[in-house]
Amino acid sequence: MLKLSNFIGGQWQGSVSGRTLQAAASDDGSIFATFPASSFDEVNRAVSSSRGAQNQWVSLPLDERLAMLRKFADRIESRAEEIAREEQREMGKPIAVAHQFLQAGLSAFRAALEDGGNYPFHTSIKGANGTTEINRSALGVVAQIVPWNFTVAQILVNLGPLLASGNTVIIKPSEKATPSACILFEENLLPSGVLNLVLGDGQAGKALAAHTDIDLVVFTGSIATGRKIAQAAGSNLNRSILELGGKDAAIVDVGVDVESVAMDVAAGSFLNSGQICTSMERIYVHQDIVESFLPALVEASKIFAEGGRMAIGPMVDNDQARIVAEHVSDAVALGAEVIAGGIPTEVNGNHFPPTVLTGITGNMLIAQQETFGPVAPITVVDSFATALELARESEYGLAATVYSNNAENLAAARDIEAAVIWINGWQASDGIRQAEPARSSGMGAMGGTLSYDAATRPTTVFVPHEGGRP
């Protein structure tokens, strides 16, 4: 049985109260670790440590900070296999998928350090009356509250600019996926207090968000929790950056390569058991190709089913499996048809098979609420315009994917309110992204230099020409 601890001020520490929580394996629910049920006392200790370390950290030359952070990334990468296996145990992620996203997180972290070396922390502009200096300084202490589906990768994606800018950071992982974060901290050789770890459930997250000495909260998670985070931080007039839920649309237009697109839609629906914030959860298929597309999608789903070469793992826990089952049951009761997968007839841990549903209508739960499971809900549409209209009818605005060879349709799709729009390829990227979630999917622009903007506060200093002296 693993006994995990908080990492505060360069030391592993238990909870003040002695209360602990348990980490359960996603596959069968067996308990394999305990960790502190941190509350305000542990959070306050971490904040004090971070505040005490921040002045010395920001005083270091930028090149020294960047060098330390590059070594940190190398040490994390040396533990990639252990992190991947821990993520498999704690939330069901297949090893290959864990490696894929961990490498993506490391790439984003390293790219952010390169951005930091070129970021204009200090700018001088000469004008008619004098010189204007624009200085961007670190905010101070940042709380980063990360989700259970990509614990280490999500930490890394946001962490680089925060630390490189001179902030100190407190990490709070989800209680559903804690052990992998502890491996990361075993490689934390940064100066004491620069990067702290607080374990626990929502009580610890609430204490962090509401703490008066936190300058910024970066949160990834549900809309409901995000609203509470924003309210808690806002009550102290502190900032928050929120990446919240998604109910991402995918549009499949007439004229596309049906088999290729079906494979891409299967990946977008089933990868990581659908437990990705940008998974496809509303799929609109043109009526002229539906008869060929559906069999192709069913065939593609077999690759992600048990025994397939990309077989998915279990849901993170029974609660998440139950939500998926409820959404599928509700859809079937209201007229949807299961053409692949479906609710398991036998108990198989927290596993839920890749499922394809047709006949989806707007009154079904699966058309309205985030499912976060391996389900591809298909709605047949009579035109691209109809699909676009339906895609826009959502409170969510995280991402969308559009498959079409029609230039006019692709131009129209660019107006979907979302942080990211992928054209003819889900998750396709050159590693460049600057975006902000739309609608209820969050707030706060991140990516590239925007992440440094979010991690710093600008100050303007005006110095008049010599003749302007008093």
From TrEMBL:
Domain Aldehyde dehydrogenase: 17-461
Cross-referenced SUPFAM superfamilies: ALDH-like (SSF53720)
CDD domains documented for this protein: ALDH
Any GO MF annotation of the entry: oxidoreductase activity, acting on the aldehyde or oxo group of donors, NAD or NADP as acceptor
Pfam family, one: Aldedh
Signal peptide segment: none
Active site: E243
Keywords, alphabetical: Oxidoreductase
Annotated family: Belongs to the aldehyde dehydrogenase family.
Official protein name in the record: Aldehyde dehydrogenase
